[in-house]
Amino acid sequence: MSATAAPRAPCVLSATGMLGTGFSERSLLRxxxxxxxxxxxxxxxxxxxxxxxxxxxxxxxxxxxxxDLDCILRAGRxxxxxxxxxxxxxxxxxxxxxxxxxxxxxxxxxxxxxIKLAVIHSxxxxxxxxxxxxxxxxxxxxxxxxxxxxxxxxxxxxxAQIGPEPYRRAFxxxxxxxxxxxxxxxxxxAALATRLGVAPGPAWHAGKVLECGAAAAVKxxxxxxxxxxxADDAFTVELPNxxxxxxxxxxRAHGYYENADPYxxxxxxxxxxxxxxxxxxxxxxxxxxxxxxxxxxxxxxxxxxxxxxxGYRSIAIAGVSDPIxxxxxxxxxxxxxxxxxxxxxxxxxxVHGKDFRLCVRRYGAADGQPxxxxxxxxxxxxxxxAGEQARARAAVAVAVHTxxxxxxxxxxGFVSNLAIPFSPAVFDGGPVYEWSVNHLVTLDDPVAPFRxxxxxxxxxxxxxxxx
Amino acid sequence: xxxxxxxxxxxxxxxxxxxxxxDVLFDDTASFDQAAxxxxxxxxxxxxxxxxxxxxxxxxxxRDALTIKISFxxxxxxxxxxxxxxxxxxxxARLAAQPLxxxxxx
Lengths: 467, 106
What we know:
The complex is a heterodimer of chains A (467) and B (106).
Chain A: H1 2-5, E1 11-14, H2 25-33, E2 39-44, H3 51-55, H4 62-79, E3 83-90, H5 94-111, E4 116-120, E5 123-124, H6 126-134, E6 138-140, H7 149-154, E7 155-161, H8 164-172, E8 177-180, H9 185-195, H10 200-210, E9 226-231, E10 234-238, H11 248-254, E11 264-267, E12 270-273, E13 278-283, E14 286-290, E15 293-296, E16 300-320, H12 323-326, H13 329-348, E17 356-363, E18 378-386, H14 389-404, E19 426-443, E20 452-457
Parallel strand pairs in A: 1-2, 2-3, 3-8, 4-8
Antiparallel strand pairs in A: 1-9, 4-20, 5-7, 6-19, 7-16, 9-10, 10-14, 11-12, 12-15, 13-14, 16-18, 16-19, 17-18
Helix pairs in contact in A: 2-4, 4-5, 8-9, 9-10, 13-14
Chain B: H1 3-6, E1 9-14, E2 19-25, H2 29-36, H3 43-50, E3 58-62, E4 67-73, H4 92-96
Antiparallel strand pairs in B: 1-2, 2-4, 3-4
């Protein structure tokens, strides 16, 4: 389609919305046929919550991540075009970045790929963050409390959503593959596009569309690739998979997804301004967007995320179907909770609010209607967070036993109230984290705080010290 | 008729761990205009529905995209103790269930 119309127009491919969620390899190769001169992929998100930055664990199986990375690296090297993977992996802290770098080594070795790898570290030390705070360079994002030193000190990990500059530095130094920790999603693609000579406006706005992969399609049948082809102050998005297409409306609407403000999207070093953007369908499921601007900010700010440990979680799940109990569920839950708190102190010496926190979640309405042949059941989840796993587990066990036989007004005699689906009833959720930092930090230099290892040709086994 | 019956899609999602954004998408300008004129989609009503300060509610009428967008800070950050929707995906339900009071103020 467009390959013959403008064979050497700058063109960037996004493999999928999140590395490890998959895409069709055929779409990837078709995208390169259509003229892609760089491949990018976003590999992380704050969506799965604070646990992954805090713990350094992965939210997805590493096998699926390796499959996607394998396709991307082989395609990138076969076409001899740069590859950038950002927010590797999940939260994009150093521990998770290491997993991605190890995967690149495995893949390079298995397929004998000529990879000159550069690795960008987005993780920041607490000392660095304290200095930034003391220097007055930190401000809170909307809805976020002001930052103090105690919050920084309590954070397990801090990462910055880096801009395109560190990527460009790494490619300029000779890398053909760049793997970076936490990044602005759009910056991955803005870096690739601006290196091809694209103006910041279309480079950034297209980046915002590209970072979610095929999500800008009218109907995303499955996670897949998307390409942007650039010309002057415009870009055209297109899905290499003929089973999916974009429309003016789908691209426009996608721009609004996950963004608090649809017209002004703040990014490292400036704002994507789409107020003047004009969207037009140009046939073949392609949409051309003109007039998008990137307005540089007075100061260069990056968003820093932090997560802190707050204890260990245990939970139990139960169902309540007794119509007499359901008729008075609110009272039952509140009086039984008082008993749980009393029993935990009496039996375990655990004081509510000091030694543990209890959360009782109810799923379903007490007055819901049963369907034919079924009882109506309300789900209850008991959750405790305490300083030690064994203590959390002990308190949930107390909660379950207390509620199991807690009196129900309307019945006389000894009652048994909970349908408990599992033995054991109590599950350990492990360490629990909460978001501690979500603040903007002003940088003098968009690259300096972020260590770039390499570029280096991958020849030997993975060596942690090298990266 | 409820808002969810008129809209093509009502969705909600985190916009970062501390913000929530809801999109109400319509099939045509007629249904967009119908919804845009009712009190269900006014900041005061949204503030009450989600128990957040009215001043924190931002509302965008994106007629060219047949979308009404609403953003406000989450009452508790994603994944905080007691939060029950880490991705913010089901905040949409409350809004979708609201009856449309056509032509009326809240």
